[in-house]
Write a structure and sequence with these properties.
Blueprint (H helix, E strand, L loop, with lengths): L2 E5 L2 E4 L4 E8 L7 E7 L6 E6 L6 E3 L7 E6 L4 E6 L8 E8 L14 E2 L3 E6 L1
Parallel strand pairs: 2-11
Antiparallel strand pairs: 1-3, 3-8, 4-5, 4-9, 5-6, 7-8, 9-10, 9-11
Length: 125
């Protein structure tokens, strides 16, 4: 049984940066595609950034391209999301997730069978 735990959320001003981390416990996800998702109040959960099992491939939703960077360190079982130039519309609960049966990039939420508890990111204007 594996567990994902996010950290690094908080309250920042527009233009600031934050770095989210996702640590895996109980099992390794080094062979799994992973991703960051977010959910704002009243909206559906959406993908933010995806990464392949090796880290060689990444994909971002259009609204965060050139501002966010996803990375992973399989030796440490950690995935990160560097968020720069934050905007108020980035405000949401951010979740990390792992798709244990998928290695390639996937934005299909049902592919992800492990989820963290979420961390709140609030960007004030």
């Amino acid at each position: 049984q594996g567990q994902l735990v996010e950290s690094g959320g908080g309250l920042v001003q527009a233009g600031d940066s934050l770095r989210l981390s996702c640590s895996a416990f109980g099992r390794t996800f080094s062979s799994s595609a992973m991703g960051w998702f977010r959910q704002a109040p009243g909206k559906e959960r959406e993908f933010v950034a995806l990464i392949t099992w090796s880290g060689a491939g990444t994909h971002y939703t259009d609204s965060v391209k050139d501002r966010f960077t996803i990375s992973r360190d399989n030796n440490r079982n950690v995935m990160s999301l560097q968020m720069n130039s934050l905007k108020p519309e980035d405000t949401a609960v951010y979740y990390c997730a792992a798709a244990s049966r998928v290695r390639a990039l996937t934005a299909v939420i049902s592919d992800y069978d492990y989820w963290g508890q979420g961390t709140q990111v609030t960007v004030s204007s």
